[in-house]
Design goal:
4 domains, Syntaxin Binding Protein 1, Chain A, domain 2, Rossmann fold, single chain, about 45% helix, alpha/beta, Sec1-like_sf, Sec-1-like_dom3a, Sec-1-like_dom1
């Protein structure tokens, strides 16, 4: 369809709009769209209401809700291939048909058993299209995705054998193969060598994606093959817990942002009157797209420059909005026609200006800067002067800070980060647990499920080696901000993929490996991890990273640092720090994987 370096977001929209919707419209000029809870979330990540209505959709209804029969109307069912959804689908035609003719698209593979249930039901006579769309994931950025599988840490790390994880691993592998199907990519697959779950997923995924390209005859793979890297969440337990100061990560840390980008915030006007406001921030908001991965103070600067340029370019429109400078009828008509879009863009600017300033105010008022300084030291092993910190001194700082924190989950966040970053002596561990509630102190033992020792054999020491500390100190520029100088581990993994040194970096390829593996390639130099470099000609080469157990928004922001290679990052879910904390606290092998609540999802009506 498009060139190989097209973003995942645009490839996904092409699947929904240019394949599913246009194919349906070729058989029916107007139709109802029926979605279930999870497929609604999938749609909301990439399409707006207007995208659907322009292609023939008259209304969108939820499968789980009671719906009136419309026997003269056609319906497009966009559903997940779950037992619940298929039973409800069959019920729609069990007594009398709800719709005239139907077009069924499943987000993923449907099992033989469920296929038989459909085949032996009354629904068969009404089906005009029946397909697997292979798009069981939600877009969370231009080249970021989530499989929407929260609550799986217990299944991954508390299972006694591979057989107990098999159903979950196969489910993830099937859905992950859909990402590569949409991209038309048949990747080389490698995995974190010291992780059995990562190995299981890599082998299962490789089998599923190869079967996908074999079974779908019109699905042609791109000539250049990317590398798919499967990471286990235990590769870095620290970064998802810190107060990352890039706009998206910090906003979702400090505010509750819905799966659809919906955020509610309080604003105070010039008369000191407070009011509640709502906004939707997603890929259709170009201001958000430009700012999301910028460090928060740089985002403010970029926003101001963009607003200034926008006002200069639309000076006539701004005058019109004030009722000035329009004497000719033609000029007036032209301006009026564009006034709506002009005002909408100004609203975007105003929203982001407020949210950026609000994040910076909270960061300062709640003394997060002090915590952030500790976090950066734990991640790097040194302070802002690039000197190794003394364990006794930082432990004292941490315990004092834990005593000041009043919210339990925030206490656990810092305590778990401490144990993930250092092996504590028995005395230091006791001092740490004495200042937090007993239940949280007990939950700290879950760090051992991720393969880390809970307590060191002797005195407290850093988990990061002196050699690694020296490497990090040598790579980063002089520290000017105490709250942002750590280098995300995922950044180094991407570099290893680009330079063909994954095997030397602790990764193993599944059944097949690239022919040039082992031939080291130079890595483009990035002058700063915080400043985007001037883009050159974009290579068709891709690196796809999937984090089993969930990816943090702090990891997604590294995308801005790679211009020569298309980097795509996804996870079994995406989370902010406190969501990761809750995942750890809720870890249980018996826990059910929850469905998305449809109340948390809305399609973009703009």
């Amino acid at each position: 369809m498009e060139n190989e370096s097209c973003s995942l977001f645009h490839s996904f929209r092409h699947r929904i709009l240019n394949e599913i919707l246009d194919e349906t419209r070729s058989l029916s000029s107007s139709f109802i769209i029926i979605v279930d809870k999870k497929s609604l979330g999938i749609l909301s990540g990439a399409v707006r209401i207007i995208d659907l209505t322009e292609r023939g959709a008259t209304v969108i209804e939820l499968l789980e809700k009671e719906r009136k029969p419309l026997p003269n109307s056609d319906a497009l069912y966009f559903l997940t291939p779950s037992i619940k959804s298929i039973k409800r689908l069959i019920q729609d035609f069990s007594s009398e048909p709800k719709y005239h003719q139907i077009f069924i698209y499943f987000t993923g593979h449907i099992s033989d058993q469920l296929m038989q249930e459909i085949a032996h039901s009354e629904i068969v006579k009404y089906i005009r299209i029946f397909k697997e769309a292979n798009c069981s994931f939600r877009m969370i950025g231009s080249d970021c995705f989530s499989l929407e599988c929260p609550g799986i840490l217990g299944h991954l790390y508390m299972s006694k054998s591979s057989s107990e994880r098999r159903e979950l691993i196969n489910h993830l592998a099937q859905n992950l193969s859909g990402v590569c199907g949409i991209l038309h990519d048949l990747p080389y697959v490698c995995y974190q060598s010291d992780s059995l779950p990562a190995q299981e997923l890599a082998l299962a995924f490789e089998e599923h994606v190869e079967n996908l390209f074999r079974s779908v005859t019109d699905l042609k793979a791109n000539e250049s093959r990317p590398v798919m890297i499967i990471l286990d969440r235990n590769y870095d337990l620290s970064l998802p817990l810190i107060h990352d100061v890039h706009y998206e990560a910090l906003l979702k840390d400090l505010y509750e942002v819905g799966n659809d980008g919906h955020v509610v915030y309080s604003s105070v006007d010039n008369s000191n009157v407070s009011s509640t406001k709502e906004a939707v921030i997603n890929e259709h908001d170009q201001i958000w797209v430009k700012l999301r991965y910028q460090e928060i103070d740089e985002a403010q600067s970029v926003l101001n420059n963009e607003l200034k340029a926008f006002r200069i370019a639309n000076a006539g429109m701004e005058q019109a909005a004030k009722g000035e400078g329009l004497n000719e009828v033609k000029a007036m008509a032209k301006v009026v026609s564009g006034l709506s879009g002009f005002n909408e863009t100004l609203t975007y600017f105003a929203t982001h200006r407020f949210l950026i300033e609000a994040c910076m105010k909270i960061f300062a008022d709640e003394k997060i800067t002090d915590i952030s300084e500790i976090e950066q030291m734990l991640l790097c092993g040194f302070d802002t002067e690039k000197k190794e910190y003394k364990e006794s001194e930082i432990i004292e700082k941490i315990i004092n800070k834990l005593s000041d924190i009043t919210k339990g989950n925030e206490q656990f966040r810092l305590a778990f980060l401490t144990i993930a970053s250092m092996e504590l002596s028995s005395n230091d561990r006791k001092s740490l647990t004495d200042v937090i509630p007993p239940s949280l102190g007990l939950a700290l033992s879950k760090v051992s499920l991720f393969g880390l020792s809970l307590q060191g054999p002797g005195k407290t020491q850093k988990r990061i080696s002196k050699k690694k500390i020296g490497e990090i100190a040598g790579r980063i520029p002089p520290v000017t901000k105490i709250f942002n100088y750590a280098m995300p581990k995922i950044y180094e993994i991407i570099e290893s993929a680009i330079s063909n040194t994954l095997i030397e970096s602790g990764f193993t390829f599944a059944r097949n490996s690239p022919p040039n593996m082992g031939e080291a390639q130079p890595v483009p130099q990035v002058k700063s991890l915080r400043k985007k470099q001037n883009p050159g000609i974009r290579s068709k080469r891709k690196v796809i990273i999937f984090v089993l157990g969930g990816v943090s928004y702090a990891e997604l922001r590294v995308l801005k640092d790679f211009d020569d290679v298309q980097v795509i990052i996804g996870g079994s879910r995406a989370f902010c720090p406190l969501e990761f904390v809750q995942e750890i606290l809720d870890m249980s092998k018996e826990a059910d994987i929850p469905d998305l609540d449809p109340r948390d999802i809305e399609l973009d009506f703009r």
